[in-house]
Design a protein that fits this description.
globular; 2 domains; Rossmann fold; 14 strands
């Protein structure tokens, strides 16, 4: 099948490369010429495990261009995968969606299926349809559909190839079935619905997962006050099949490009319909509070944080990605710098991105350098190397052996036995 994917960010590039791996001919379009020139040479602009190898393996079935006209000319199906960043009010910014829809309309040359892959508010399918219709010079027939993505950064290739489900929303069943053909090799459940239900499934899913994180963080805060251990509590809860273990990990809260944005977007949608979403409000309030709790734990450990030497382990919002959007590390570092702290930070892949925000932080080569002369070591991303580091070596490097484990990756008893002062989230 001839496919065009507009947008080569996390979603667009992974989608395009994986569809090529399924045997389709895919043209990826982006207005960023430097990015496209790099992709033509095999340079991947994002850190995503396995993506570079997949790109190399499918180079004969992949094309890259800055021209939407060239991209859609032979395509039967066109996926829109551009960004929908939040506005100041929390609503999704549809500037790129509207621009792409207008350009598609102007360059239509026959029947096509236009698919929203971007995370969009309910009703954007209708908006895209009207924009294309208004700008189509030849008045060609077309269908607009929604096929939301459920990719996790750091495991996006696996998630695409092993989906729990594929959701396709369209007005005409024939269009949905045509899209479904792309995903049949994945041997998964394909849900066909109306467009608005498909659009809402994405927001509802991410918001529910964010709610689980905020819920277990609230339980963690209660655990600390009553003398319970949130790890034990979460395990006991997770064994209930109705609840499940996933996303019951207490810590510093969620970040990234999806959860905060999608919760805010759903909250804005609800308010636009004159409904105040009480649960969604609480999800965001608890998440903001967790960052303050981490700062308070550092204060409790040191007595005062003004001018202290702090080591930061982890800058990306989660492991296996260099994405720092809405990352806990950014808020924590900003708060520490405001108090005059001296910071050494290490992350395997995300340091370059954070350096653009905080030039005064010293970015070091490994976790041991981050611990050098530190009076407190703060774990903000649960990278595997932090779980397996030599704690005796860490202790020897530190001025004062104290760890604030904002991701609960260590056993408190073992850490304390080694002579560390330890503070986790909701740990007894």
């Amino acid at each position: 099948m001839q496919i065009c994917v507009i947008g080569t960010g996390y979603v667009g590039l992974v989608t395009g490369v994986c569809m090529a791996d399924l045997g389709n001919n895919v043209t990826c379009v982006d207005i960023d010429k430097a990015k496209i020139d790099g992709l033509k040479k095999g340079v991947v602009p994002i850190y995503e495990p396995g993506l570079k190898d997949l790109l190399k393996r499918n180079k004969k079935r992949l094309k890259f261009t800055t021209s939407i006209k060239d991209g859609i000319s032979k395509a039967a199906i066109v996926f829109i995968a551009v960004g929908t960043p939040p506005t100041k009010t929390g609503e999704a910014d549809l500037t790129y969606i509207k621009s792409v829809a207008k350009t598609i309309g102007k360059n239509m040359n026959g029947y096509k299926i236009i698919v929203d892959k971007s995370t969009v508010p309910v009703g954007v399918g209708d908006l895209v349809e009207s924009i294309i219709e208004d700008n189509s010079k030849g008045k060609y027939d077309f269908d607009v559909a929604s096929c939301p993505e459920f990719l996790r950064e750091g495991s996006a290739i696996y998630d695409f190839m092993n989906p729990d489900r594929v959701v396709i929303g369209a007005k005409r069943k024939e269009a949905a079935q045509k899209i479904a053909e792309i995903f049949k090799p994945l041997n998964t459940k394909i849900i066909i619905s109306d467009i608005r239900s498909a659009e809402l499934i994405k927001h509802a899913s991410n918001t529910f997962l964010a709610m689980k994180i905020s819920f277990i963080n609230e339980i963690a805060n209660i655990c600390e006050r009553v003398g319970a251990d949130v790890e034990v509590v979460a395990n006991g809860m997770g064994l209930d099949k109705r609840i499940g273990k996933l996303f019951l990990n207490a810590g510093a809260g969620f970040g990234g490009s999806c959860f905060p944005k999608d919760v805010e977007a759903l909250r804005s949608m609800a308010r636009n319909e004159d409904y105040e979403p009480l649960i969604l409000n609480a999800v965001m309030d608890v998440n903001k509070q967790q960052r303050k709790i981490v700062i308070n734990k550092i204060k409790q450990m040191l007595g005062t944080i003004e001018g202290r030497q702090i080591g930061i382990l982890g800058l990306a919002f989660k492991p296996n990605t260099d994405d720092i959007r809405e990352a806990v590390s950014v808020d924590i570092i900003r708060a520490l710098l405001d108090k005059g702290c001296r910071i050494k930070a290490f992350d395997p892949v995300a340091a370059k991105r954070v350096k653009k925000i905080f030039s005064q932080v010293q970015y070091v080569k490994d976790e041991y350098a981050a611990a050098e002369n530190a009076e407190c070591l703060v774990v903000l991303t649960e990278w595997n190397e932090f779980k397996e580091m030599d704690l005796k070596k860490i202790k020897k490097a530190m001025k004062k052996p104290g760890i604030v484990d904002a991701r609960n990756i260590y056993d408190p008893k073992k850490i304390k036995k080694l002579g560390f002062e330890y503070a986790g989230i909701g740990r007894n």
